[in-house]
TrEMBL record:
It comes from Raphidocelis subcapitata. SUPFAM superfamilies: NTF2-like. InterPro entries: NTF2-like_dom_sf (IPR032710), SnoaL-like (IPR037401), UCP030561 (IPR008317). Gene3D superfamilies: 3.10.450.50. The lineage of its organism: Eukaryota, Viridiplantae, Chlorophyta, core chlorophytes, Chlorophyceae. Residues 11-109 form the SnoaL-like domain. This is SnoaL-like domain-containing protein.
Length: 119
C-alpha cells in the first residue's frame, strides 16, 4: 500500500470522528506523543494526545462541523483545506491543517486558523 494512501485513510478517520464529535475515536488516531503546532506562530498547542483531550472536549460541546474543501498528500504528509462551522456564537473559521502520519497514527499536526465571523 502506498504511504500516501495510508496517511489519507488515517486523516479521513480523524475528520469523520471530528464531524461525529466522537472524542474517543478522534483521539485514537493520534500518537500518544503527537505534536500539535500553530502553523502561523510556531507555538505549541499540545505535546500529547492527553493535552489535546480538553481542547476537543470543549470543541465537541458545540455543533462543530468540518467541511473538507480540498486535500493533498505526499508520502506521510496530508494537507487539508477546511471550513469549520458550528463554533460558539455561530462563528466559523477557515483552516488549513498539515498532518504527518507514521505507523498509522498522526504524529504531528500543524494548524493555520482564521476566524471567519458569524454564519
Amino acid at each position: 500500500m502506498p504511504q500516501s494512501d495510508e496517511a489519507i485513510r488515517v486523516v479521513q478517520r480523524q475528520l469523520e470522528a471530528y464531524n461525529a464529535r466522537d472524542l474517543e475515536a478522534f483521539l485514537a488516531v493520534f500518537d500518544d506523543d503527537v505534536q500539535a503546532v500553530d502553523a502561523e506562530t510556531g507555538a505549541q498547542i499540545a505535546t500529547s494526545a492527553a493535552e489535546l483531550r480538553p481542547r476537543y472536549e470543549r470543541r465537541f460541546q458545540t455543533a462543530v462541523h468540518c467541511e473538507l474543501l480540498g486535500r493533498l498528500a505526499c508520502g506521510d504528509t496530508v494537507v487539508d483545506r477546511e471550513r469549520i462551522s458550528g463554533l460558539p456564537g455561530g462563528e466559523w473559521a477557515d483552516c488549513m491543517a498539515v498532518y504527518t502520519v507514521k505507523g498509522g497514527k498522526i504524529v504531528r499536526m500543524q494548524l493555520l486558523w482564521k476566524a471567519g465571523g458569524s454564519q
